[in-house]
Amino acid sequence: MEKYLKIGRTGKSFGTEGALKFKVEEPFLDDFFEAQVIFIELLGKPVPFFVDHIHNEAPLIVKLEEVDSRKTALELAGKALFLRAEDVSETSLEKPLDLSALEGYRIVDQTLGAIGPIEEVLEFPQQIMAVLQYEGREVLIPLNSQFILEVNAEDQRIEMDLPEGLLEL
Predict the structure, then answer these.
(1) What b/e sequence results for 117-154 when a residue is b if at least 16 CB atoms lie within 10 Å of its CB, and e otherwise?
(2) CATH code for the structural domain at 4-93
(3) What stretch(es) of the chain map to CATH 2.30.30.240?
(4) Using one digit for the tens of pLDDT, what is the confidence trace for 73-94?
(5) pTM for the whole thing?
(6) 99-168: which CATH architecture?
């Protein structure tokens, strides 16, 4: 029996030629672009469709084979979108890092030494920030791979090379 993984949903129809907006979850985007066949849930079962072409990537506007009218596209709008489990890569299935797990880790700068423990981790569109107290005030430190030298889970310590002046901001 075939196994399927939900990767998103179909959105509204787009235009008059039968195209649809697709909402594909971020981890599955590469798998979606490489898939030979996608599945849309109709009457409780995944039904196969072949992608004719993709108009653009943001938002995803997809033209499916044999969906040639707005009316047909409307029937597919708002439905669950699946790929066969065999068409999903291992990396897509890896669980995203739970950033709250870094709370309590101590940040140690290679020049300044111990900075302090992370009180909170905030996720912004551009980057992930650690919130901590340093010299009596709250500071934000970007958890950026450019600055991180080592993460030691056993000691709950993050060794960093912070840019000069960052802690004075």
Answers:
(1) ebeebeeeeeeebbebeeeeeebbbbbeeebeeeeeee
(2) 2.40.30.60
(3) 99-168
(4) 999 999 999 999 999 988 777 7
(5) 0.57
(6) Roll (2.30)
